[in-house]
Specification:
The protein is α+β, with helices and mostly antiparallel strands. It is built from 47 helices and 24 strands. Strands 1, 2, 3, 4, 5 and 6 form a six-stranded antiparallel beta sheet that branches. A hairpin with a 2-residue loop joins strand 16 and strand 17. Helix 29 packs across helix 32 (877-890). The radius of gyration is 40 Å and the shape is elongated. It starts with 5 loop residues before the first helix and ends in a 5-residue tail after the last helix. Residues 143-180, 410-447 are annotated as: Disordered. It is found in: Membrane. Residues 430-446 have a biased composition (Basic and acidic residues). One of its GO terms (cellular component) is membrane.
Length: 1289
């Protein structure tokens, strides 16, 4: 603080000063005309149209300690296109725009710029311009003589088409005159000059008015009341920032200016007119762009007008409250910084469109994840398949009503801009379109330009690009707007210091009220959506230091539980949103708030949530998705109105300074050279400076006291920066330094960032998928929902697109990855043709999936591409790339395929610049390694998403050759079923054990029905298993059988329902297997079936305790199945009929103590026991023995007989075990099993067929079984069609 000289006096108050710098940019007459190569202008343009370098001519004060002056950035943003020249024939309306400089730590400084044209008095510059014109004309003449059509006339057309409006008629002679339009003897040359205020807070309206008055003073016929230095000094040193919740009035040159600042409980300051953003884009478009911003996509704003870029960018980021944009933010991208568009990170940037350039000519490095906002044409292009904002329709409705209540229509704004379809604009000639707008302007009371409030009209005219162009046009077409001219002449305007509001102030108040109400509607959406976010924040660290050091490993938010609490329609959006950096930072701030002061936005947000709880606005049922409107619109607007009506503080009036006489003489139309001495130091005895410094000292003291309690501040700051930059590695590129070294370093940061992001994403995908085991090993949360998996995979696709579009030489198509794949495909196919081989040879073969019969599927990147190319459902390149990634992930080939793709180095070199991620060898290897780790888990992300595509399947039937003939004389058939449907019955050609068929995606396969018609002599068939493979994804399922199909053998079955299990590719090594997801339920193994039917005597008998445990586990698995979200349940058939299933467990129970194998007699089955029991019941019923039983008992008896007969009389040739399986499944479905069991036990047949020790004959065991089975009654069980086909109940 105690430095001597200029800075100290000026800076004592800087933190609470309204403005930090006053800057003047323009032409440096010393260096003359320097073409601006970086702006990339071509020299075929006429010299007046070219870009020349501007300079910072002066800045006051020299430097401010806590906001060091960044000369390059300020110059670049004050005049993003460099200097522009005009002659007296051109339009020279002043322009206003704002800009923002984001420092590397994320803090922001605002700049407000008023650009006007000043006559060039330097003869050197005039003659330089003349020389350029002569050279240009000579070139044009040569070009014209050599080509049929002269480009100079085109060029002059361009210069007369200023701002893209066409002159209604123009003779060729005037065109040729315009072509060489500058001649120093005849024309006056003007050049742009910019006046700029740099402020710590975005008081846009106040700065705009101050600078406009400053310019008025320069062009007025008489000198201003005081020298300009007085006003500059006043705003730099004597006008404080308004205090929180207070308003402030200070004095411009001709009238006072009022600004206000929200209180600590209100939404933070935002002064850019939101109504304008809404009117430029339309409500729905703005909500869509807002959603893209929340999901951290790349957003590119495009407009001719810098102020529009700024208004939309600031508008959208303001609406994010309580969240903050965490990535690259450059609302005005200077021409020299176009390489930023290559950044493979989320960004929000604004690009100035050149006059007359078409969107289609704009070469953007990556568009897969780009939201392109064409502000001037009111149109947006959205990325493919992104989720909608919750309750979007009601939300848009509420915003529209707020706009209407202020007299704005929803699709157009205050200066009415008709929002037309793209075709209609071009068809209306300029004059008609404009005069229509003029009429509307004059008839339209909504504009606030009510009679008598002439100043506001002038302000409108000075600051509104549309109106300025309109006016120039009316001049050119001969229409004069007399009132406007008169206004401009008499702009001197008396100071309106009285109590009555001027039009300008009313307009401002209206804008401020509308702004805050629109923002409240957005904020209340978040208050509703995240009302309970605190319950899901995981506070695990004991202190800040340990939290910061372990930040990367820790889970801060219980995502799965949070999502399970949300209404279904919100999930697609929320599941993406809680993965973003802005949400992570928000939660980090929340956790850090237990150790340090709460971040202001978080404080406001938390207060609102508490208030809502107090009034219990939240509906009692959490999962309600009904829309809640914002309830505090009126009070938020009142707070602002009160502040603006009752001014809390008035700054010191501008006054004469102690200046040298005779300098800076007033000369109309020229901005004087200001006296540096008086402007570089501020006053030393300023009341509010002292207040501020004592407060600052207090803060410093407090900080020193707490410092030794927490960790050393520098270290802490380092930690904080690291913790905060987690995953967003590059917050803000430096605008000023453009040396190749810095650009290289920026790129290096991008590369490191991409690698880090890849590491984190793959780790998260692994941990989430590993489920239970991973949690036991101490990684994160337990469950991953299908929704969450989809979100993670979508974000992986997005990451790969960003990696592939980093450092592209030439962009082709919207998906950089797909474009690379196509290049690769074309090349391989060409090589294959040259080698005359039908397919590329280098591909490895995947080892056979099972030792028998199923031919191996070739691993081929090209083949996978062809599968995707043949899918008519996918219409775009981005979609194809995503489908290819999903397919490769499902096949566990993603890393291998990409390695293959990148192994063609010549191709990579041709497509990518040296600095591209894909050409950084070491990083690329690590990246492929991270992707390889995903092979440890099973994904079905292709099969489960593309549910309607046709898929080729291959079926192989494997008989047991040792015990039976391999072929059968009968006619076999097969039907394959999966979670999404079944193939229908397909005949298998005789004597063929393998067939392929095409069928709409069946999803994960569940069952295969296999049977034959028992024809011919060799009709008995012993089948080991059936193998089925999805020929696109390569997933192979094994359906074990291990039994006979044939009459008079085994249980006499001619068809069986087999339950599938996914086969592990044998190529997987043990390490991958050790950490894989638990396998799917298996189908009944051969062993069990053979033991049940006692074909051999090897069966290992289970004891009663094991059998009871088995039943408990089977029932438990079914209950767990129903507790999962519907989309993630998997196959119920497996739990009913597979290995360790309900049917298997009950078979064990019925087999306990069963006298089945008799010497020299055929095997007896459990079904035989049921059959006898039913026969006994039916006969007893006829004889009338059941008279004394209850009515309920009778009903149960009848139901059992009914079901038994339905199963026995089916047209299907099911064997006895198959029939028992059906009885159990139907009994479980219809909640009858527990009632049937006692009936079976009471039948006398049991004495002949069961030993005394059998579990079935032990009453207490039976009662336990019944109560276990009754727990299934809470769930509605639906049986797969393949099980119950042909049963009439």
């Amino acid at each position: 603080m105690g430095t001597s000289g200029g800075t100290s006096a000026g800076s004592a108050a800087a933190p609470c000063r309204f403005a930090h710098y006053f800057v003047i940019c323009g032409i440096d007459t010393e260096t003359g005309l320097e073409p601006d190569e970086l702006a990339g202008e071509n020299f075929e343009q006429s010299p007046l149209k070219r870009t020349f370098k501007s300079k910072v001519l002066a800045r006051y004060p020299e430097n401010v300690e806590w906001n060091p002056f960044d000369q390059d950035a300020v110059n670049m943003l004050c005049m993003p296109k460099g200097l522009s020249f005009r002659t007296q024939a051109d339009q020279r309306e002043p322009q206003f725009h704002s800009f923002i400089i984001t420092k590397e730590d994320g803090s922001r400084t605002y700049g407000f710029v008023h650009t006007f044209y000043e006559e060039v008095t330097s003869p050197q510059i005039c003659s330089a311009m003349q020389t350029l014109y002569q050279m240009h004309n000579a070139e044009q003449t040569n070009a014209a003589s050599s080509s049929s059509s002269s480009s100079s006339s085109m060029d002059s057309l361009a210069s007369s088409l200023d701002d893209g409006y066409s002159p209604t008629s123009s003779s060729s002679s005037s065109l040729s005159r315009a072509a060489g339009s500058y001649d120093s003897s005849r024309d006056t040359l003007y050049v742009s000059k910019a006046l700029c205020l740099i402020t710590p807070m975005p008081f846009m309206h106040a700065c705009r008015r101050f600078l406009a008055q400053m310019h008025s003073a320069v062009i007025a016929a008489t000198a201003p009341p005081l020298p300009l230095e007085s006003y500059v000094y006043n705003i730099l040193y004597e006008v404080p920032l308004p205090a929180l919740g207070r308003s402030l009035k200070f004095h411009g040159i001709y009238e006072s200016i009022v600004c206000q600042r929200p209180g600590p409980g209100e939404l933070p300051l935002a002064d850019f007119p939101l109504a304008e953003a809404f009117s430029l884009l339309g409500v729905e478009n703005l909500v869509q762009v807002f959603t893209c911003t929340l999901l951290e996509m790349q957003i590119l704003l495009y407009s001719q007008d810098y102020q529009r870029l700024m208004t939309v960018a600031e508008g959208i980021t303001t609406l994010l409250f309580p969240f903050q944009w965490q990535h690259v933010y450059v609302p005005i991208l200077p021409a020299s910084l176009l390489h930023f568009l290559d950044a493979p990170v989320p960004y929000l940037m604004g690009l100035q469109s050149k006059e007359g350039t078409d969107r289609s000519k704009l070469e953007l490095p990556q568009e897969a994840n780009l939201c392109f906002v064409d502000i001037d044409n009111h149109s947006i292009e959205l990325p493919e398949d992104f989720p909608q904002f919750p309750n979007k329709t009601e939300f848009i409705q509420e915003l529209t009503e707020v706009l209407l209540s202020f007299g704005f229509s929803a699709n157009t704004g205050a200066p009415p801009r008709t929002r037309s379809s793209p075709g209609s604009t071009s068809s209306t000639p300029g004059r008609e379109r404009k005069s229509a707008t003029l009429r509307q302007l004059e008839d339209d009371g909504r504009n606030g330009n009510l009679a008598g409030e002439e100043l506001v009209v002038l302000e409108l005219l000075q600051g509104n690009a549309t109106l300025e162009r309109l006016q120039a046009l009316t001049k050119r077409t001969g229409v004069t707007v007399a009132r406007v001219e008169a206004l401009r002449a008499g702009v001197k305007g008396q100071p309106t210091d009285g109590g009555n509001q001027t039009g300008g102030e009313e307009e401002e108040l209206r804008n401020a009220k509308l702004n805050v109400q629109l923002r409240e509607v957005f904020a209340s959406r978040f208050t509703t959506m995240f009302a309970d976010y605190e319950s899901f924040v995981i506070q695990s660290a004991p202190d800040l230091e340990s939290w910061l050091t372990n930040r990367e490993q820790m889970h801060n938010f219980d995502k799965a539980s949070f999502l399970s609490d949300q209404p279904e329609p919100y999930l697609p959006f929320l599941s993406h949103f809680i993965e973003t950096q802005m949400f992570a930072t928000f939660i980090d701030n929340k956790i850090m708030s237990q150790w340090e002061e709460k971040e202001p936005m978080l404080h406001v947000f938390d207060t609102r949530i508490d208030k809502a709880r107090l009034y219990n606005i939240r509906a009692p049922s959490l999962r309600s998705s009904c829309y809640q409107r914002c309830s505090i619109l009126k009070e938020s607007a009142q707070a602002i109105e009160q502040r603006l009506m009752k001014i809390d503080h008035t700054a010191i009036h501008p006054h004469l300074l102690d200046m040298k006489i005779g300098q800076g003489k007033y000369e109309q139309g020229f901005f004087p050279k200001l006296q540096t001495e008086v402007l570089n130091t501020g006053p030393s005895n300023n009341k509010w400076c002292h207040k501020a410094t004592t407060a600052q000292r207090r803060k410093d003291r407090h900080r020193q006291q707490t410092e030794h309690l927490t960790l050393d501040n520098d270290l802490k700051e380092k930690y904080m920066q690291e913790a905060r930059s987690l995953g967003k590695n590059l917050r803000q590129p430096k605008l000023s330094d453009l040396s190749p070294a810095v650009i290289a370093q920026t790129n290096w940061k991008f590369v490191e960032g991409l690698l880090k992001e890849c590491r984190m994403k793959t780790k998260r995908m692994l941990v989430e998928k590993m489920g239970r085991e991973a949690v036991e090993l101490g990684h994160g949360e337990a469950s991953i929902t299908g929704l969450e998996e989809n979100t993670l995979i979508a974000s992986l696709c997005d990451l790969l697109e960003r990696i592939w579009s980093h450092g592209l030489q030439v962009k082709q198509g919207k998906s950089a990855l797909w474009s690379h794949l196509l290049h690769y495909q074309a090349r391989e196919e060409m090589l294959a043709q040259q080698a005359d081989s039908p397919a590329p040879r280098f591909l490895e073969r995947r080892k056979s999936d099972s030792s028998i019969a199923m031919p191996s599927l070739r691993v081929s990147l090209i083949q996978d591409m062809r599968h995707i190319q043949s899918m008519s459902e996918i219409k775009t390149d981005v979609g194809r790339a995503r489908a290819w990634i999903r397919l490769s992930l499902e096949k566990k080939l993603l890393s291998q395929h990409l390695k293959q793709l990148l192994s063609r180095q010549a191709l990579t070199k041709k497509l990518y610049k040296r600095y591209a991620f894909l050409r950084c060898e070491e990083e690329k290897e690590q990246f492929l390694f991270h992707l390889l780790s995903l092979n440890a888990v099973d994904y079905f992300c292709f099969t489960s998403v593309f549910t309607t595509i046709m898929i080729p399947y291959r079926v192989v039937i494997i008989p047991i050759k040792k015990l039976s003939n391999a072929m059968t004389t009968s006619n076999p058939w097969v039907c394959v079923s999966g979670e999404l449907g079944d193939s229908g019955i397909m005949q298998i050609p005789k004597n063929v054990l393998e067939m392929t068929f095409d069928c709409q995606n069946l999803g994960k396969l569940t069952t295969v029905q296999l049977g034959h018609d028992n024809a011919g002599l060799l009709a008995k068939w012993l089948v080991d298993c059936v193998m089925v493979r999805n020929e696109i994804t390569g997933h192979t399922y094994r359906f074990p059988c291990g039994r006979w199909l044939g009459k008079g053998v085994d249980d006499g079955s001619l068809e069986r329902v087999l339950i599938g299990e996914l086969v592990l590719p044998s190529g997987e090594d043990d390490s991958a297997r050790a950490c894989r997801t638990p396998p799917l339920q298996r189908s009944p193994s051969q062993g069990r079936h053979i033991s049940i039917t006692s074909l051999t005597g090897r069966d290992t008998k289970l004891n009663s305790a094991q059998i009871q445990e088995g039943i408990g586990e089977a029932v438990n698995n079914i209950i767990k199945h129903f507790h999962k979200p519907e989309k993630e349940r998997g196959s119920l058939t497996v739990l009913l009929c597979g290995e360790n299933s309900l049917v298997a467990a009950l078979e064990q129970f019925f087999h306990h103590g069963f006298k089945s194998a008799r010497l020299f007699q055929k095997t007896v089955f459990v079904w035989d026991f049921v059959e006898k029991a039913v026969a006994y019941m039916e006969s007893a019923d006829q004889v009338g023995d059941l008279q004394e039983t209850t009515e309920a008992m009778k009903m149960t008896c009848q139901s059992l007989c009914h079901y038994f007969n339905a199963i026995n009389s089916t047209s299907r040739n099911i064997g006895k075990d198959g029939k028992f399986q059906l009885l159990v499944c139907l009994g479980a479905r219809d909640r009858l099993l527990p009632q049937w069991l006692p009936l079976l036990v009471e039948c006398p047949v049991i004495l002949q067929m069961y030993e005394d020790t059998a579990m079935l004959r032990d009453p207490s065991t039976l009662n336990t079984l019944i109560s276990v089975l009754e727990t299934l009654h809470d769930f509605s069980i639906t049986l797969e069609a393949s099980l119950v086909k042909g049963i009439n109940l």
